[in-house]
Design a protein that fits this description.
The chain is mainly β. The chain is about 5% helix and about 45% strand. The protein is globular and about 50 Å long. Keywords: Signal.
Length: about 425
């Protein structure tokens, strides 16, 4: 991290605290001081080379792992990298490169990801470009595995088994299944209809042999929004995505499997936003669970613009949506739980002045039953922070990573947040 950025950011926080201490008005700045004490942000990507696509997960020992896509030169060559924090998110160790990801296509919404199995095996999954006569923007999903703690990696392999007919795969996710195998979902161009949209596929690993048994679990999905795959404490497997309803409405959908992905129930709509749009929003849903059930966050412009929240207890309906941020340019929410089930939501948001950089990361805290507690801002209002990801450290602290946009190349930063609630 550059010294100048540290000085500017520290001065910004100091001024923020002074201003909030001199007014009795219940402003968002007052909420910021009582919600969290953000640590100084740290750049993890290489100096002088563009980077993007931060992703957070845990290794087999519960350590936080941050992965990202890093340019290795200035001619458009990229690789996935990752680093492990062994001290509760205070620092990260030396970055490790995954050499078999040389075809990775950096895309923050179509996010490259890394997963650690309980036995220490690692899977890295990433998008590659696949322009073809049917779709010049098409892509494929590939994965590579390591069976020796990241020392060596298998040759990258296409996720779909039908490599001849699957010509466009994107917006994937992975999750460890109840039986220890790994499940994956993705959007696929293969479909048995002329209607707009992609099919949603599911497959799972067979030991170290890779992903097999692909099957369609829904059709007519928005082609350009990320999906989410999540296993709750009751070992139920949840899928969230943006569907296309009545050929024109693009609302959030949810389906669940109670048998580890062997079968899935009929999809349900999370919220009847009725967003009619002939295009792709490029912002998918997020979900997490606690003792009160499942919790969801998403962006829509149906019935109002912004990022919204809903909850669903077992056997009940989805609760009416609540506003997280009503800014029209609020996007890309992500969720985590901490402190015995409290909810933390992060998202990116842009101010009204389009003549200068003004993207920042927001943080909202809700109690374990979803009631709003506090909202704050993690990064500078006049900055260029986008696409946040979040994880919890020891159930008390939050670690947030994001991309900083810059004219001469983007950077990946992270910061430790200690909520005071």
């Amino acid at each position: 991290m550059t010294r100048s950025f540290n000085i500017i950011y520290t001065c910004f926080l100091a001024l923020l605290f002074i201003v909030t201490g001199c007014t009795n008005h219940a402003s968002e700045k007052e909420k910021a001081t009582s919600t969290a004490a953000p640590a100084v942000p740290v750049r993890i990507s290489d100096d002088g080379l563009t980077a993007s696509c931060p992703y957070l997960t845990k290794d087999e020992n519960g350590n936080t792992v941050l992965s990202w896509v890093q340019a290795i030169d200035t001619t458009g060559n990229f690789l996935m990298k990752y680093a492990v924090s062994g001290d509760g998110g205070k620092t990260f160790g030396e970055a490790q490169t995954i050499p078999t990801t040389s075809a990775v296509h950096p895309h923050d919404e179509n996010l490259p990801k890394i997963l650690f199995r309980k036995n220490g095996d690692i899977i890295a999954m990433f998008p590659v470009s696949n322009p073809n006569p049917k779709n010049s923007y098409a892509g494929l999903v590939f994965y590579t595995q390591s069976f020796d703690g990241g020392k060596s990696w298998t040759e990258a392999k296409q996720l779909a088994e039908d490599t001849i007919n699957s010509i466009d795969e994107r917006y994937f996710d992975m999750e460890v299944l109840p039986n220890g195998e790994v499940g994956a979902i993705w959007l696929d161009s293969r479909k048995n209809t002329d209607k707009e949209g992609s099919s949603l596929y599911f497959a799972s690993t067979n030991g170290r042999k890779g992903f097999v048994g692909e099957m369609v679990i829904d059709t007519q999905l928005c082609q350009c929004c990320r999906t989410d795959l999540y296993l709750d404490a009751q070992q139920q497997l949840h899928v969230a995505y943006r569907g296309i309803l009545n050929d024109s409405i693009r609302d959030m959908m949810h389906l669940v499997s109670v048998d580890g992905g062997k079968s899935f129930a009929k999809p349900e709509r999370i919220s009847a936003d009725n967003w009619v749009i002939d295009g792709c929003p490029h912002t998918g849903p997020a979900m997490v669970s606690n003792k009160f059930g499942m919790h969801y966050a998403w962006f829509t412009m149906g019935g109002g613009s912004g990022v919204y929240y809903s909850q669903k207890e077992a056997g009940k309906s989805f609760t009416p949506r609540e506003t997280i941020s009503n800014a029209p340019a609020a996007r890309h929410p992500q969720l985590s739980t901490f402190n015995n089930g409290k909810l933390a939501v992060v998202w990116d948001e842009r101010g009204n002045d389009s003549t200068k950089p003004n993207n920042y990361i927001g943080l909202q805290i809700r109690n374990d039953n979803g009631a709003h507690l506090k909202t704050t801002q993690l990064t500078e209002a006049n900055g260029s922070a986008v696409y946040p990801v979040i994880t919890t450290i020891d159930d008390k602290d939050l670690l947030v990573a994001y991309t900083i946009k810059k004219e001469k190349g983007n950077e990946v930063w992270w910061q430790l947040v200690r909520p005071r609630i």
